[in-house]
Amino acid sequence: MVRRESRRFRILRLEVDVSFPFPTIIGIFAAFIMIASYSLLGMPDIGLQFALPIGSIDPSSVGDLAAAIRIMMTHSIVVSTLNLFYVILLLVPLLMAFNFALGFSNGQIRMLVSYPIGRKRIIITKWGLIFILSSASVTLGALFGLAFFFPFTMDIAILGQLFIPLWINILLVTTSCLLMAVLFRSAPLTAVGGISLWLGTFVLFTMQSSSSFLLNVLFPFLSAINYLNPDFISPISFLGATSLSDVLLGCGAAFLLSVLLLCFSVFAFRRLEV
Amino acid sequence: MSDYAVSINNVTKSFGSVRALDDLSLNIDSCIFGLIGPNGAGKTTLLRILLGLIRPDNGTANILGHSILDRPEDYLEHVGVLHENPYYPPLMTARQYLTDVGLLYPDQIPVDEVLALVGLSEAADRKIRYLSAGMYRRLGLAQALVGRPRLILLDEPTSNLDITGRDLVMRLIVGIHNEEKVSFLITSHILSELERACHQVAIIVRGKIVEKGAIAELVERHTQCRFRAISSDSWKLEKLLKGEEGIVSVLVEGSKSLIIEVSSDYVRDMESRLEKAANRGGIQFYGIEATGTLEDVFRRLVSRG
User: Given an 8 Å threshold on Cβ–Cβ distance, is A3 in contact with B106?
Assistant: First the structure.
């Protein structure tokens, strides 16, 4: 039984080799690090300085200096993560379209289900790799910004408040795109549908007053940023005042919704005729 | 437990208003078995049902003693598959792909051994996108074989191949069956190939099995009144025979050979009648022989519907 279980995980190796060869993974990570760097350079454009306010700090006070650096670190990681999040809204539908939905038309899914692998394992592996790659890319890209401030360390609680909602948000985006891929079984429809849904929702919510609960559920990452920096960055000011309970409620609801979408996708995929 | 490699019982499958399989039942022994039928007869649908890719509306089937309605991954451990239009990752090498696929099975044939068996050793480290059509098909056979299966399902294994490639694939199938004792279920349109390789065939028309058996038996049963006539000019002989009493059909096979089907009452004096007709037309008549191929059987059964 142990042997059989370990064998079932070998689909991971096949899936990584087929869909995410080494150069692809490195390419995605490199692109995210570059975008993060570019975001940091663009900080002055949104009124944030990527430099210490030397004139306003008492050089003899180490505490003031450390606090100033900590604020700057928070700003830089938030800016880079926020910019990477927009890229994720584009990237995840594309990854889901070309690494999963396309498999229905080019015969890859038919090949996979003809091997001794359960359908549940196939869909979970495909979705899981896209989720891990997306989350890891944003996280690595964002953390790259912190390298500038070495040897100062950032408060782990702030990182948690930032990254946990981010990962939950990516979870929601990946599961919604997964469901589209299973239902549409078409790469173009999944890509266009996923991008339209997420960018469209985002734009719609920024253009008119909407339910703040819905906003917190669909974009828990943005409400977390708003909570961390209430006086910060105009693009997400539409969220208004955000409390910790808003963030927690949004994260919890988004997580539950993601699990629901994932379960429904698995259910639908197991019954698909391929 | 059934002794058959595959046992299909009253399987029905419809796609909308089209009935692809109509209460189909078939038992397949452990051998090289051919499934033939015209386009749209239901061959590929049947293979997809056996693989668990689609579910039958009614009926059931067993593969190597496992019901297809159970978890397909259990019996797929012992089944290799080559789809008609397979997908192999273009950026991987044949060796990498076979290694990854082999790991999915409980028992594997070493990759180098499989590559040698299908004649792909030299191209083992070439990216799949650079393989020729023949090599691509052989890679398909290799991935079907690498998990040491007891049964291999092949859907049109020689499509898109030239005559040399087709010969090679069919020789491989026979060789693998003899050496590894693997059973095969093959669908193909190229009946002459199946005739060379298969021990038994079934003919499927409009979702039903209309005939099944050893090829020699089928040919004997369905082509008793067919002859090959050899003359100096088959086209002229064909014209001379048109309208002759007792002649059911005449088909020019080559410049000197003609396939003639006669009604059973005229079989006995067939040769003398042909000779007379040839003399009348001023051409040389060399003789006749009883003939019959799987293709003749197929034509006869399909036209009968």
Answer: yes
Are B187 and B298 in contact, with CB atoms under 8 Å apart? Answer: no
ipTM > 0.90? no
Does one domain contain both B144 and B248?
no
Same domain, B63 and B133: yes
Tokens of A197: 């849904």
Closest-CA residue of A relative to B70 is A118
Interface of B with A in 133-162 (CB under 8 A): 147
B275 lies in which domain range? 224-304
Contacts of B52 in chain A (CB under 8 A): 113
Residue B302 phi/psi, 5° resolution? -70, -40
Residue B163 sits in the same domain as residue B258: no
Beta carbons of A17 and B100 less than 8 Å apart:
yes
Cβ contact, residue pair A10, B100, below 8 Å: yes
User: Is A13 in CB contact (< 8 Å) with chain B?
Assistant: yes
Same domain? B198 vs B298: no
Q: ∠B120-B122-B128 over CA atoms, to 5°? A: 65
Residues B152 and B31: beta-carbon distance below 8 Å: no
Residue B13 falls within a domain, yes or no?
A: yes
- For chain A (length 274 residues), average pLDDT per consecutive 10? 60 86 85 82 66 65 74 80 89 95 94 93 95 93 78 79 94 98 96 94 72 84 80 56 87 97 97 92
Q: Are residues B65 and B197 in the same domain?
A: yes
Mutation target to probe the B interface, by most B beta carbons within 10 A, among A10, A110, A114 is A114
pTM over cut 0.80: yes
Q: What is the C-alpha to C-alpha distance for residues B117 and B114, in angstroms, rounded to an integer?
A: 5
Q: Establish if A120 touches chain B: CB-CB under 8 angstroms.
A: no
User: Rounded to whole angstroms, how far apart are CA atoms B257 and B286?
Assistant: 10
Same domain, B96 and B31: yes
Backbone dihedral angles phi then psi of residue A13, each to the nearest 5 degrees: -65, -45
The tens digit of pLDDT for each residue in B252-274 reads 989 999 988 888 788 888 888 88
- With CA atoms as reference, the chain A residue closest to B49 would be A273
Which residues numbered 149-208 in A keep a CB inside 8 Å of some CB on B? none
CATH code at position B273: 3.30.70.100
Judge whether B65 lies within some domain: yes
